[in-house]
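Morning!

As promised:
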Amino acid sequence: MQSSLAVLAENIVKRFPGVVAVNNVTFDLRYGEIHGLLGQNGAGKSTLLKVVYGVHKPDHGNIYVDNRKVFIKSPRDARKLGIALVHQEIAVLPHLTVLENIALLGFSWGNLISKFDRSEFKNYIDKIMSRFGIDLEFNEKVRNLSSAEKMLVQIVAALSINAKILLLDEPTSPLSLHEVEKLFDVLKQLKKEGLAITFVTHRVNEALDICDRITILRNGEKVATVESKDIDAHTLIKLMLGREPEELYRVRVDKDIETIFSRYLGEVPLIELKNISTQPQTAAEVPLKNINLKIYRGEVVAVFGFIGAGKTELGKTLIGLTKVSHGDILYMGKKIKIKSPVEAIKHGIFYLPEDRRVEGLIPHFTVTANMDISSLDIVKKFGIFIDSLKELNISLDMIKKLNVVTSSPYAKITQLSGGNQQKVLVARAMLTNAKLVIFDEPTVGIDVATKAEIRRLIYRYARERGVSSLVLTSDVDEALGLADRIYVMRDGKIIREYINKNLDRDEILKNLA
Amino acid sequence: MVLRILNNALTKFKYFYTYYELSRALIPLIILILVSIAMSPRYFLNPVNIKVVLMQITPLTLIATGEMLIILMGSIDLSPGSAQAATAMIAAILTRTTNNLLLAILVAVALGTLIGVINGVLVSKLRIYSFVATLASLVIWRSFVIIVSGGKLIYGLTQYSVFTQDFGTYIPIGFVLTVFIVILIYVLLTKTVIGRYLYGIGSNEDAVRLAGVRADFVKFLAFTIAGTLYGLGGVMLIAMGGFAVDPWSARGNELNAIASCVLGGIMLTGGSGHPLGGLLGASMLTILTNILVLLGVTEIAVQQTVVGIVLIGAATALTRGLRYVK
């Protein structure tokens, strides 16, 4: 069994409306190896896994399992072929016990009619667990387990149905360092037994630690597959981030830079965070630790860091959606409290969310209605009525200015491509009279030409209208090409601050290796 | 060739049917009316029957329109039946004791509004699921009716005949008033900021909240307006229901209101549906029962079964194209 091919996914293409999530990727996985899938947010790692697991149907490409061509139409098909997906923590049933979870997650229809013998099943699972050195309390409710243990429950469930191919989707992101080590021990044991393991991550060091081979994805395309013993962290980061053509990211001109910098001495910042720490309200939320940050009027500030660095939490702190346990927010030097997005807007702070579809778009609305939902004040007449003519004119004006491709201002927003949807959201921000706009990953998951357009818009908006922008990004080129100052974030902390002048790209990346 | 043209026409019709929210309710209603006429032209088009149908439509339209406001936000309201009974009972008692019709109506509508305010506070301030909060309302206000009425029927409230007068047109005044109120709601939903926010909340509440909308206030407002409509529905219940109220009046009407919304093309997931959906759906539900009666189907059980089957059909058409529903 050693070293033979487990899965070959050949020339996989998966398109979503407006974006090619996976573009012609070929990926092979052998038995007895841990194969890392490394890439940024939106690189297509999860989509690729979901294609193999039958969640998404590929638009093009073939999948071979054990050298036989297969058609995987649903996760059920995948499991029949011995493929199991272990997801961060979504796939467990919190109110059932460990044993019940294992039984249910490993459930197949064959078991429905056969008699379920509890003690026999217990013995069976016990044997599996001791073989791989996994230690779990059978009668504990799963909601009381740590994230790592929940992961193990899923792994044991996969083993109980004799899965030979394990797909692990970002297993380490909710785990502490110690838990990661424990998980890795188990994975190594599984590898020794000849299982094929795919390990999705955006953390370079982890990939190097545990994987035999690493496939790097970027913008839906495969960059390379490398043996991990032949490569070092720095090269890997470079491969993962790539470098975009200069004209795509270099939107900032250095001409006016001196005037910007001279202000840092005298002026009071528009917004200042002083020693802000937060208390996470959910398991997935990253706590912020002692954040100090300043944003001046008309300045573009970027916060650069990977997923899980706490960028979104930082953005949400500024609109009152996290619980601040310590520290102050100063607005023009005065202490303020922000408790909700409504209050944030009163102070002129507007946040454009990272996940367009979940938190940004209003799917049943037209392009126009999506644009001015935050600024209906300017199209009001007689108190509560909407002046539809005025609304149409403003919308047409914005569509022209931002070059939004849409059949009509009254087209449904869902009919637009991802890039154009994002432009509509940028227009939403521009129509408010915000003094600070927080752009959370403004260009993730959209095509390259629109990326450049949106960056230019953000920049021009700051320079011409004097509106400050806080760009939260995991794209180092975006930060370098756009921002006057760059903060580097990691694990909920700001670890460096740079003034973007003669700044070296590698110098920033060194912080994250 | 012919097949292609036919196919084209079908595609166009599909598009029309799915995306034009008004047509979702209007086309089935027209079909239903045509079928009814075809099946029983003499009785169905009889002016007296038309008046009876319009009278039955009136109170149901008012509560269905209120329910629609809530469903458009993606919430649900189980209180319309009890609210209708509570307001009707208060109006009846006041009419009896004071003989002042206007006062009775005003107090009834005010009580309806109060019920809406309480629902609104429970949902938007105390953050209780609308299903649970209004379930409590359903039980509490029904108990209120039983207590204030002493379990007794109040009848002979002939003052309410002002709403059933038709001046020879067979269209009762109450129905005209109701259509006027529906038009007001239509304007509220389509031409005002509040309507925009209301649809937005139903479509994607997270996005609307992040966009800085005071969603809690809009929710509160919607429940309040819905309550007012239930109050009016209570008054019309007396007028159209034989000038009498008993403690179990309007029982189960919350379900008729929800069914009307479904028939009227209002998506239960929120955010989608035409503002006239409540009126059209209530009309459909009423005409459906009416034609069954005219055809001699007097067994309530059979009627309800047919209504249920039609409801399943309407609901299937409504959610076609969705990957799954809850």
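Chain B touches chain A through 22 residues (CB under 8 Å).

Hope this helps with the figure draft.
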